[in-house]
Amino acid sequence: MNFIDLVKHRKSIRDFLDKSVEREKIMTCLEAARLAPSASNSQPWRFIVVDDKQLKKKLCKAAFGGVYFINSFCKTAPVIIVVISEKSKFTTRIGAMFRGTQFYLIDIGIACEHLVLQAEDLGLGTCWIGWFNERAVKSVLNIPRNKKIDILIALGYYDREKLGTEHGREPMEKIASFNSY
Ligand SMILES: Cc1cc2nc3c(=O)[nH]c(=O)nc-3n(C[C@H](O)[C@H](O)[C@H](O)COP(=O)(O)O)c2cc1C
Question: Is this model's pTM higher than 0.90 or not?
Fold first, then answer.
């Protein structure tokens, strides 16, 4: 698939097949994330891959309880990737302060989208998950309390037949222009 077709092909997956994902494929996804660009090459990320069935069950129960129940579909995903936002380099943090831009979040976003698109290329589905009980995730995975988890990614095989076709995006003229706002 060429790149634009790959991008068109990707959709958020919320119903996964009960099929485990090969470690080799997970490693390829992580490699795509590892190679992502970041402000001052800070690489402010760490990925914890949860593919152990029992641990994943425990994680989902903790992460998607109560007000977070809307994302409990994640329990069908054979893999949950927990993305920890690590500290950027000093220069990036100073730059971020002066610019008022959280560069680390841009970095995390790029790395995660590399991972997501690599997964799609390998026939795997993903869903970005921003709504979860962060404290509970930290507790299950022994992640220090001072760390920040901004996003999770659910990963696994899926049935393409079950998906709709529409991405539902704004028209080009609304989101882009040449030479002026
Ligand atoms: C930062 C971020 C956080 C998201 N959080 C959630 C989430 O908590 N639960 C969910 O079901 N989808 C979540 N999504 C997926 C979006 O809802 C989805 O990307 C959007 O509706 C567009 O649909 P598509 O991915 O199928 O093209 C998130 C996406 C992003 C980029």
Answer: yes
